[in-house]
């Protein structure tokens, strides 16, 4: 349940003694204005050039559907210009529920074939629903 992001220097990287700084912005979809998100450390793991974003980050920032992830690389040995990269991501709105029916309520795992029917589901983003997943506790 993590989104993994990795920064990589590909040209003029010096001795590879680089420091990476990460910033995350929430984007207002109507005005396209960006708001830097300050309180994300409890939802994110940073390991130098890698960033892991837990799904709890998106729940804590539900007022945004779009985000910019910005990474700035600094060469710690040479006086080179900083390198900057940005990644744009957009979360998907969950589908609107329909019904799910199963042909049998009992059976044996890996032996019984269960038939599931899904009807009435729709995607607010306007995409065709091609795949359904069922989870059991």
Automatic annotation (TrEMBL):
It comes from the Eukaryota. Residues 6-127 form the PKD/REJ-like domain. This is REJ domain-containing protein. It comes from Nephila pilipes.
